[in-house]
Predict the 3D structure of the following.
Amino acid sequence: MRCPNFVLDIEDQRLWQDDEAVHISKKAFQLLRCFVENPGRLLTKERILEEVWGEVWVSDGLVKDYVHDLRVALGDDARDSRFIETVRGRGYRFLGGIEIAKVGTDQTATTYARPPSLIVQALSDLTGSESSARLCRGLTSDLVTDLARFPDLVVLADDNSGDDGIVRPSVSEEAPKGGPSYILTGSVQIANRKFRVNVHLIETVGGRVIWTEQYDRRLENLLDVQRNIVARVASAVGGVSGQIPRTERLRMERYLPNDLKAYDLYLLAHELEVHFDREKTLRGIELIKQALALEPEFARAWLVLGWLSWQACAAEWVEDVGLQQRTVIDAYAKAAELDPLDPLGLMESASVHAIRGDQTCARDTLERALALGKNQADLLVAASNYVAIVLGEPDRAMRLMDRGLEMLLQIPVWHNLTGLRVSYFSGDYERALGFAERAPKFLLTDLFEILSLAQLGRQDALSDRCRIFRNRHPRFDHLALGKLLPITADRTMKSYLAGIAKAGLGRDAARLRVVS
């Protein structure tokens, strides 16, 4: 068999196999460049972290993850390496086999999307002891590591601060060009077995403080408390419903530039996606397709296309639901391929495996998403739905969802839709009805509210709700919806069918089968 011909184009930031581009994430490209420029040399994890991540503190476990992803892209085998050799206990060695493209090749350069940058200021120690200084360093390091996992942020570390611990907007000069930047700063104070953490999020343009929060904790179990605070701050700042994504979307509402580039189109589409409205969803699909025409390797844009298209399928807002469902599957698969370390992309990729009937791969992919996103509130809440309907573990799903919701300072409306479904499949129908009151007005909200009422035997309210549901959704087919969700675990399938039967909404329930 002919050996693949790999070429690394430094200028274009692409890996080519013969005449085809190989999709790898930007950080994976930087790691591969580090290997290719040091052929035959032992590269320790410390050296790789310094070369690829620079001043950003991240766990050395990320190196192993990205090496794995490079091996997948190159078709390499850790047990019989052709490109990257593991030197056990020491690091890695590049064995050759990948050329560097000559300057001046006629490959078309890609203009990559530019997410906003976040500069993480070292937390100020207001106590002055060695232990409090260590705590400040630990909190700062963990914050950078967790925030660096959010694909919508470019995270930088900066140790310079004023006497008051607040970084001034001049630091924005160090951030990448092409988008607004933010600074996360704060302080730690310890007294009487208690400690207080204050954090501030500042826009570098004008120095406006857009978010501030105070955390007061006792020191019984310092490591647990430290993990809790880091997870809360990271989710509040960088999560899908966090302060920076929200500020960016609001910025787009205030100012619509005539020349809409890919990232701005992505922001606009993302804002429309959270409304669960027919016109806004269809408009969002148009905008995100425009973004992808400009930036076909923008992983998060593919994810938003999948979310918007899924809404259009679930509510039957398009004529050809089958075609739109294929768009959902292709978009999720593409997002995970382009950024294999984005837990949200992996989570949706797990749903694709489930739809195709590969339960083993679905479980493995979902577990990896949960491991990577263990401190991301939005991921924990969203993934809890798949833990229930794909893995068939509703009790575990409820625990994950509650942990994610507890980390959020303010619960976005769309998380109530997840709470409704997870509560239903966990058998907590009263709680499900509470989530239904706060969830967006959407087909799934109406449906699982009805199923919960049916399971509780509330016939007085059920008949009117079913009549309204049929009038609102005359094309509803519970069989097709079961495949789209996708409900693939026997336990949750039985629960779904039981509710459908009790509500009288089914059409020959025995026909419901999830197929590839």
About this structure: Residues 7 and 296 are 20 Å apart (CA to CA). Residues 104-113, 159-179, 508-516 have pLDDT under 50 and may be disordered.
